[in-house]
């Protein structure tokens, strides 16, 4: 009976993890550059091998589950905003840097201009060029009213990442090429950091395929995720009922045993 309870519980724990991951995928379906996650689990035979050795108490082994990121490309959405960028290369990422100098990698190409003309992600991290921060300064930043307005600029970003204002090349968007994507660690909905064993190289400009005025949507298929959530909820409820039924049987056995 304990084995049945344990087996059901061991099945419910990864189901709970999958439910949480699926819910997060659905919540970020409209997040630019978001990459869906999925759950993997080791064969439960390994996780339950102690059951054959312990006749009474059941040791508490955590079912070895974990998440991985699906880096498949999301659909591209045309915005016509000159500061919206999308990278077609699956292994290509924008390089962002925070005020402390930490580097991040992202597929989210929705950028803005800071008050000093630095090109930034929506959370304030700076977009890196090949020679440092990408910055638009001086009169290029202003319209007739003197307002900092990216739409007032004749801003053009070529497919290879070169940035032009009024046909003057002011820099190049840095694109990191990461072949061992599985080593990236997600730190926010659409940003990653490199692990120690992550190999990061700058993609040669001739290999970069960038679209200006486009954004990469999340790669979440909402319908599939919703179907998966319904199935997971049913499986979780089934496991819960097994535990409840066995608990009731166990309680009855204990009660009967008190009178003998």
Blueprint of the fold:
Blueprint (H helix, E strand, L loop, with lengths): L1 H26 L9 E5 L2 H4 L17 E5 L6 E3 L6 E3 L4 E6 L5 E4 L4 E3 L5 E3 L4 E4 L2 E2 L21 E3 L4 E4 L2 E5 L2 E4 L5 E5 L2 E4 L5 E3 L7 E3 L1 E3 L5 H36 L3
Antiparallel strand pairs: 1-2, 3-19, 4-18, 5-6, 5-9, 5-14, 6-16, 7-8, 9-10, 11-12, 12-13, 14-17, 15-16
Helix pairs in contact: 1-3
Summarize the structure.
With 260 residues, this protein is of the alpha+beta class.
Describe it:
The protein has helices at residues 2-27, 44-47, 222-257, and strands at 37-41, 65-69, 76-78, 85-87, 92-97, 103-106, 111-113, 119-121, 126-129, 132-133, 155-157, 162-165, 168-172, 175-178, 184-188, 191-194, 200-202, 210-212, 214-216. The chain is α+β, with helices and mostly antiparallel strands. Among the domains are: 76-216, no CATH class; 225-260. The strands form six sheets. Strands 5, 6, 9, 10, 14, 15, 16 and 17 form an eight-stranded antiparallel beta sheet that branches. A three-stranded antiparallel beta sheet has the order 11-12-13, with no helix packed on it. The longest helix is centred in the last third of the chain and has 36 residues, at 222-257. The chain is elongated. The relative contact order is 0.20.
